[in-house]
User: What shape does this take?
Amino acid sequence: MRKTFDAELQELGAEMIDMAAAAEDAIDLVTASLAAPDDRQAREATAMTQNMDQNEREIENRCLRLLLQQQPVARDLRTISAALKMVTDLQRIGDQCANIAEISLLLAREGPVPDHIREMSRKASSMVKRAIFAYANREEGAAHEVIGMDDAVDALFREVKGELVTLIREDRESADRAIDLIIIAKYLERIADHAVNIAQWAIYCVTGSIEPV
Assistant: This one.
């Protein structure tokens, strides 16, 4: 029975890593789409996120089977509980990448987005990758690094928002583009927040406690 349970846990881990890899690829493509007027990356990001909803359901079903059919010990229970929470964050990262890609397609003919937003995208991407590394390797230190990076993304969002609101007031003709850019920046801020959530669950897998932010 324990062998079967361990095999199921390994399958769960593999499925989580596969979904995490999809999230990483999606945000890489979105970051590239924001830096170049070529819309190919945005279309690829949209296509990549389409399977993540199905991945989420499959992982949730596996977690529930493990909880209902087995009697996991404390460490196993932490692993399963963290997976149930993290899969939602990964799926939402995918959704937000798809939303950013959709907007970037509209902006593609107007050239690359402002530097601050591209910097936000790079930082959010780095946070997601570091958080996934922390989970996959049970690296508590890496998880704390991710949590510490969130303030920089929040500060960039406030800066971007302030600049674009000023632009809207001063140049009505630029209002539509500015609003789209604010929406992109907000999605990037949310991606960073999901990375923090993943980092917190990585810490939980190791320590059994949730770190306050």
The mean pLDDT is 88.
